[in-house]
Structure formats: C-alpha cells, structure tokens
Amino acid sequence: MLITLTCYAPNAPEVGYLLAKNPDSVFEREFSAGQVWVFYPEVAEDHITVALLTEIDPVGLVRGPAALTQLDQYVNDRPYVSTSLTSVALHTAFATALAGRNKERPERLNERMRWVVALPAVACDGGEDLMARLFTPLGYTLTATRHPLDSSFLAWGASDIYSVRLEGEQTVRDVLGHLYVLLPVLDNSKHYYVDREETEKLLDHGGAWLALHPERELIARRYLRYKRTLISSALERLAALDVPIEPEVEANGSETSDEAAGASELAREPGVGLHEQRLQAVLAAIRESNAHSLVDLGCGEGKLLQLALKERQLTRILGVDVSSLALARARRRLHWETMPPAQRARIDIVQGSLLYRDNRLAGFDVAALVEVIEHLDAPRLSAMERVVFEHARPRRVIVTTPNREYNVHWETLGSERLRHSDHRFEWTRAEGRAWAERMSATYHYEVTQQEIGAAEPEIGAPSQLFIFDQR
Ligand code: SAH
Predict the structure, then answer these.
(1) Does the residue 412 lie in any domain?
(2) Which of 23, 245, 299, 429 is deepest in the core (most CB within 10 A)?
(3) What is the 302 CA–ligand 1 centroid distance (Å)?
C-alpha cells in the first residue's frame, strides 16, 4: 500500500526535514502490522513528494490483539487499502511531526502550504458522501473515483474501494493529523483494540481542528468503534476546546471585511472606539512593565498583535487562540504571507486552548487576556486560571472584561442581558474585584483594578481592567 503527499512551498526540501526525514535517504522500520518505508520520489525547490509505503503482514495480523475471524484472517483487503493500519504506519514514520515538534525548522511548523495527497486505494463504506463530509470542512477539495468489484466482471457492481485525491492548504501537522484520524474513520473496521488510549490518540491528533469539525460526533463514534463511554468522554473534552465563533459570512452571503468582522463582537457595546481604548489601556500596561515578550491569550483576529508589533521593545510575541477561523483572520490582518522576515522573527501565532497546560505559553514577561474570560463558563474559567497563573506564570497578567453595571446604557440590553451571545457572564465591578482578589491570594500576584472608557457615577465605566504582578 502506497500513499503520497506532495507539498508545494518555497524551499520545499526543508519540508522533508519538517517531516523529520532526510529527503535523500530511505527510512525503513518495522511496526506492529508489518513494514513501513518513507522515501522522496521527487525533491524540487518548489515542491516535494513524500511516499509512505507499507507492507502489511496479513498472517501477522492474526496474532494481533484484534484478530479477525476464520478465513478472512488470511484473505482480506488489509494489505492493499489505506486503513487504520496506515495510520499506525503514519505514526511510526512521522511521530515528531504529528506531535507538532521540530528542532531544525520550528518556524515552519505553522506555515500553511498547498498539499496534494494521493490515496490510491481507500476502503470506505460510506462512499463519496462520507469522505466529503469529513474532508471538505477541513479545507480540502476531494476527488474520488470508485472502483468496480472486479474489472473483468463489471456486472458484479462497484466495490467500496476508492482512489482519492485531496488538495488543500494545511500545516504539516494538520495534514498528517487529518489522515491519521480520518483514515480509520473512513474504513470503519479498525483492526486494533480500542481502549482509553485511543481516546488520547484521537484528542492528541484531532485536538483543536476536531473540536471545530461539524462531524466531530460521527468521527468520534467511528474512530472509537462505537464504545459509548469512550465517545462521550471524548466529546466532552472536545466541547471544552470548542467555542462558538463569529460567522465569517454575513446574511447576504458576502464576506465581511476585517473591520466589520472585528466589529461584530462589540456591535452591541455602547460607545464607538471602546475596543480601541481597551487595547490602548492594555498597551500602556505592557509598556509600563518593561516587557520584552508578550503572549496574547485568546488573540482572536489579532488586533492587539498588530499593535504589539509596533512596540519595538517586544522581541517575542505569541498569539494563541482556539479558533482556527480567528487565527486565519489574524494572519490576514497581519499580512502573514508577505511579512518582512525581521517582523516575522518576532511573532508567532499558534492554535491552542487556555484550558490545558501548555509549555508554549510559559516564559513570557506579560500575558494579555482581552475580552476572553467572559467566554468561559465556571469549570473552564478555573481551568484557565491554573493554566495562566500557575503554569504559564508570566510576570504580569493583564485581563479585561465588561462591566455589567454599565449595560443599562444600552437600551435594548438593559441591566439583565449580556453584550454578546457567547458571553457566559459579565461581572459587576464588585464581582470583578472579588475574582481578582481571589487570583491574587491564590497565585501570589499583586492586583490593581482600572476602568476603561468614561466612568459615570453609580455604574462606572464600560470595561474593567485588571493588572496582576507576580509577587
Ligand atoms: N482578544 C481578542 C478576541 C476576544 S473574543 C480581542 O480583544 O479582539 C474571545 C476570543 O477568545 C475568541 O477569539 C475565542 O476564540 C477565544 N477563546 C475562547 N475560549 C478559548 C479557549 N479556551 N482557549 C483559547 N482561546 C479561546
């Protein structure tokens, strides 16, 4: 069984190293179900093709933990189609790239490149419809050709075997992760035992993209072989990663401009330019701290990142968001593809969740959470608190959140309703202060509270700002 992945990108041979394989040599290894080879049939400056060849030992499979039954133990399609076994082979060959790690070229890990994946034989009981439901939401164009059961006896009808071509802009890690998770989902006859460990694999390699996939339930069900308890725990954990995002396309079908898209979050807020004032207040708190590095947690479409790039003293800037859509918009805003190398060297944008400990978030002078915490419900909020204040532990944490008392100013909002449909809460100033004091006491930070926007008697200003400094 052979699959090939072709990547079109500048300095394409480097992509071979991203996959952690020297493009000039052949990699060969045994794995549980047979043998796998990785080699590069084509290496050019602007594209590179990597081939993964697997030889499955059908008799060896019989001895595996998920033995087939009787005759089909020895006579089956396993050696000839892409299946869950191909996933195992992918993992054997590309474990580091699948984990999103690379020593030599870490800066290219998040680069989106055009990939063409050729899968000459895919077993899929759900047909082209299922394949499209799985791959198109991830940004692939899919071409599938169905093969007859036997080309000498066409009257026997069609088989469940397809030749598939996928084309799309992806990062290295994503393209591998998509295949790793989705090939077994297509196949539906997984030849290994499914247990708790499989849930971990699904979440490791699905992670953020799976949380946002419209067919995540179907994917979890088939991947986990319909084991109900595994499926519900996987879905729960995926839900924790998932956050509703602003629709990119307006009702009239036209794409919103960057500005309009940015405005949607704040459309119901009184006072033009409040978000601008908020960002300026955050920038002032960044400058005041003499920070050289900044992590923008829940960076959304990258407005703060854009301003932070102009602060020459910031030599390391990282934007993190769980939503790939928001990150795509941030890249567009920052003109990612054409960014001058000197700027590009100072900034990175990664997909990640604030609910899970993540080493990438550690070691920054300042962390900013601008209008993010109110999107988290209680259990997630406390997960975030630990991730930020205990694990990432920057010198200074800057948090902004609405002041609910101010909502009376917006007629249709009144004092009961929230400013945005995805807000899980909006705090009064007293509630905000109580939370901040709890953070301060629990995690040993000094806290100061400020207001953003014009303050009024009784109700205060539209927004609250908290600055936490490590004691
Ligand atoms: N800070 C930006 C965006 C605020 S909107 C700005 O001020 O413009 C809230 C953002 O938080 C969204 O982009 C959302 O995707 C992100 N978010 C929500 N929950 C998250 C989580 N658990 N992990 C990471 N980002 C999250």
Answers:
(1) yes
(2) 299
(3) 10
